Amino acid sequence: MTHLTEGDKIPNFEKIITKDKIKGKKLVLFFYPKDNTPGCTNEAKNLRDNYEKLKNDKFEVIGVSPDSEASHEKFSTKHELPFKLIADTEKEIMNACGVWGEKKMYGRTFDGVFRTTFIVNDKGEIEKVFKKVKTKEHYEQIMKALNE
Fold this sequence. Notes:
Layout: H1 19-22, E1 26-31, H2 38-49, H3 51-56, E2 59-65, H4 69-78, E3 84-87, H5 92-97, E4 100-105, E5 108-113, E6 116-120, E7 126-130, H6 138-146
Parallel strand pairs: 1-2, 2-3
Antiparallel strand pairs: 1-6, 4-5, 6-7
């Protein structure tokens, strides 16, 4: 599995990114493990609370997890998320971006999502990759990195 890095082109997925969708915009594409878990909820709420600032800076925000559309709908409604959540139940997008694979936690080995955020420019190129996401301060983490 190859994790996409800065300078790579984001794969073209009709659900997420096409030339028409990104024209004149940047993208915060965040991958998270599971709806309604503490870290994932904190991350989504932080991006929600700063969504207007992101829009003003010409960013679109899209979240991706292996949860179902129904799960995403409940999660989005419960937390009033203004951005799109993609159900990647087949892990097609996650595998192509290199964010699905073997993880180890508490002595267990299992397949799962590596919490990752890609900042994509309007040409579809990855400008920044966050592999260590600060879930409660993700917007601030993104802005700090982009302003360095």
